[in-house]
Amino acid sequence: MSTESGPLSGIRIIEVGVMLAGPYATMMLADLGAEVIKVEPPGGEISRQVSDSYFASLNRGKRSICLDLASAQGKAKLGELVADSHALLVNMKPSVIRRLGLTYENLRRYNEKIVCVAMTGFGLNGGDDPAFDYVIQAATGVAAMTGDPDGPPTLPGYSSADNSTGLTAALGLLAMIVSGNGGQVDVSLRDVMLSQLNYRASAYLNDGAEPRRHPFGAHSYYVPAQLFPTADGYLALFITHDGFWKSFAGEAGIEGFGTMAERAARRDEVLGVVTAVLATDTAVGWESRLKPLAIPAAAVRTLPQALEATPEMLVTAGDFRLVGSPVHVDGYTPQYRPAPVFDEYVPVSDSPVSAPGA
């Protein structure tokens, strides 16, 4: 594959996105070679007001066009773009999506094969209740099952619902393009987070087992699988089967607890022994000792430390250093163009975009 054109070269996507979930979805597609046209309202998309680095982290590689979609002229211009595009992705309230005509039902007159992806809080038919990331984490049980057992509900330190929904929407968009059929794709933050609770939800639905919090984020099934304090710092240790345990126990000088069932039944005893042993060395020390044994373990690092340890994931797009695409394709290197200047889009007559649905 050419290093100049990605696997999505020839695919044109219109984004009417705000803040994080929608723009993240289309940025992932732009990184893979799709042409993404970001439709912004007069004054610009709201995330431009957060910070330049925030906007750059979610919008690199796109082109910007200013359209007032509430006006006849804006709607007409959008129709022209739809006629020559493969997909349109929007993340707004359902009532706004319909009012602006950003559905397949309304846009199919311009292009029967257009794929319209609606990202909302609770679904296109789920109403307009506010649905920000933290609200969804609270509403779907994620916050309730996170944190110390004796402490308050806890939220992750990043926007897990928005990011997860962005990736899911990108998957649905590509699936429809591959099918060659136009249509409406409906993805909600609530449904995505419930889906990601897979084995937790299954345990309750089939066995009546409600999730309970364990200290240090311990796994509900595997023991030991959690954070542990050490002589300096914390270590994440994840023992999922007896082979891992045998190797770890040999290095740590622990006897007994040879089966997964026994370790689960004697959870407190196992954790007491492991905690005492891990306190004899630092987190980094244990990581270096366990890594050659292929035991899943890592010292807890800060974000700056994690970024310093992974220079291969850092890229430059314009004036900004960013984290690059997590999708690595043999023979293709993303260009990582900067985020667009507001309303910079100029139609190109000899555009390489292939006919929608081709």
Automatic annotation (TrEMBL):
The UniProt record lists the EC number as 2.8.3.-
Asked whether the UniProt record includes Transferase among its keywords, one would answer yes
Q: InterPro entries attached here? A: CoA-transferase_III, CoA-Trfase_fam_III, CoA-Trfase_III_dom3_sf, CoA-Trfase_III_dom_1_sf
Gene3D superfamilies assigned: Crotonobetainyl-coa:carnitine coa-transferase, domain 1, formyl-coa transferase, domain 3
Record key words, sorted = Transferase
- What GO molecular function terms would the record report? transferase activity
Top-tier EC class = transferase
For this entry, the protein name equals CoA transferase
Species per Swiss-Prot/TrEMBL record: Mycolicibacterium porcinum
